[in-house]
Amino acid sequence: MMSKLRHWISSPSGIRKIINVYGPYLGAGVRVTHIDDDYRSAAVEMKLNWYNTNYVGTHFGGSLYSMVDPMYMLLLMNRLGKDYVVWDKSASIEFVRPGRGTVSAYFEVTDERLEDIIQATADGSKHLPEWDVNITDEQGELVAKVRKVLYVRKKKQ
After folding, report:
1. Cross-referenced Pfam families, in alphabetical order (predicted)?
2. DSSP SS3 for 5
């Protein structure tokens, strides 16, 4: 029973289901709509609801950021495996236009980017890869830009 549970929570579909009921995501109305089987990419969306609006009736900035917060760390941890330490280091968000309706974001860790990270950390050095993520509305208009910086290091053997 325990091995089935462990497998379920380590599979992309299991992780997606868990994240979708995780308090901060559930409370903000964020929904993970996709995680690739190989953790190469993921997508999230958030509908505008009474509980994630700000004073002027558009998406609350904290909820917009929460859409993006764990996704690159999650993808990279699963692509690199247990021999690496992966942490969020920093982030910034630029609000471009008010978010209304459903907003979404897409994340991708390409094979080339993964190989760059593996090479940069091969000798045990830390590496601080950066990603830019666009949050867009239903018309494809840019709502916010987020820059994520991760901390990656190969574990000492």
Report:
1. DUF4442
2. helix
Other beta carbons within 10 Å of 131 = 19
Average pLDDT over residues 96-118: 97
Percent of the chain with pLDDT over 90: 80
Asked if residue 25 lies in contact with residue 16, where contact means CB atoms within 8 angstroms, the answer is no
Going by pLDDT thresholds of 50, 70 and 90, the confidence category of residue 107 is very high
Do β-strands 126-127 and 142-154 pair in parallel, antiparallel, or remain unpaired?
antiparallel
Distance in angstroms (rounded) separating the CA atoms of residues 82 and 91: 24
Strand partners, 145: 94, 134
**∠97-130-112 over CA atoms, to 5°?**
120
